[in-house]
Amino acid sequence: MNAIEVEELTKHFKSITAVDSISFEVKSGECFALIGPNGAGKSTTIKMLATLIQPDSGRIHIMGHELSHEKKKVRKRIGLASESVILYERLTALENLLFFAGLYHVPKSVAMRKAEELLKLVEMWRWRNKTVDTFSAGMKQRVNTIRALIHSPKIVFFDEPTLALDPQTSLIVRNLIKRINNNGTTVILTTHLMKEVESLADRIAIMKSGKILIISTLEELKSNFDSEVKKITVKLEDNLSIESMQKIFGTLKDVKKISKNLDRLEILYTSSNTFREIMRIITEKHLRVKSFNTSMPTLEEIFIKLTGYEPQERV
Ligand SMILES: Nc1ncnc2c1ncn2[C@@H]1O[C@H](COP(=O)(O)OP(=O)(O)O)[C@@H](O)[C@H]1O
Ligand SMILES: [Mg+2]
Predict the structure, then answer these.
(1) How far is 63 from 4, CA to CA, in rounded Å?
(2) Do 123 and 95 share a structural domain?
(3) Is the pLDDT confidence value at 272 over 80?
(4) Distance from the CA of 49 to the center of ligand 1, in angstroms?
């Protein structure tokens, strides 16, 4: 069964078409990632699915319910965690969770057990009786994330869940997402971090300018692009500068990008002729190669190719 079905969903803000007639389905239990540059329309899409804003046109079904007619039913079954922290500063972590559970009419004893389970999962149990105003940003964000899960929703939307989090908190939140997804919760995730997508998502939709450019599994995406973009990584003995590398290899027709990663040179290219050319140059110039290998493009490289944007790694 599909957890979510979206048909020709559209949203305008004055002259901007934030979401432009998109259609997709999310299977029950799936982790579905929406990625795309800033302004692509990811948050607007999530907000419409989470009933926060009204679409201009199109249809949304959530667990078989038509969203526009059955908002209340749908709201009980979904959770939304975004970067904006919605917590009462003067209440403790536990009081906050119980308060939000109350809004969903979760029985007190059930809420108590759920709060304990979730607080432990994000390593906040020992801080449960401290007020939120004493917490660091990372601690607040952890409580804020589990707030979205307190009513045991079947579908959870995470809009940039690790944006601006420290690495430790990011890892905790990522593990939490992985865990609830493994337990059968459907997850829809937006993120800038390609590593996050690679470690969590079953399928990916790439958005740009309100449209979905492609929906695919990571494997399909990579193998489709393998015939187009290839990468060669060369480890050279000589410590040549990136400028001289660009001079040497940048003249080749189908070389798309040259970069240096520690002592490794990475060259992205698009035709197999180019591979032979690269090898020819290495031999001709007597560059001493320690090792080299060719590989599938990363999601990041595919993303750049499709959208023309460099995803921002914000750690
Ligand atoms: N409340 C709003 N009012 C006006 N324009 C908006 C509003 N929300 C989003 N937009 C515009 O819609 C477009 C898509 O935004 P958004 O969905 O936030 O993109 P993303 O989450 O992919 O970065 C952007 O051009 C943004 O400026
Ligand atoms: Mg956004």
Answers:
(1) 6
(2) yes
(3) no
(4) 15
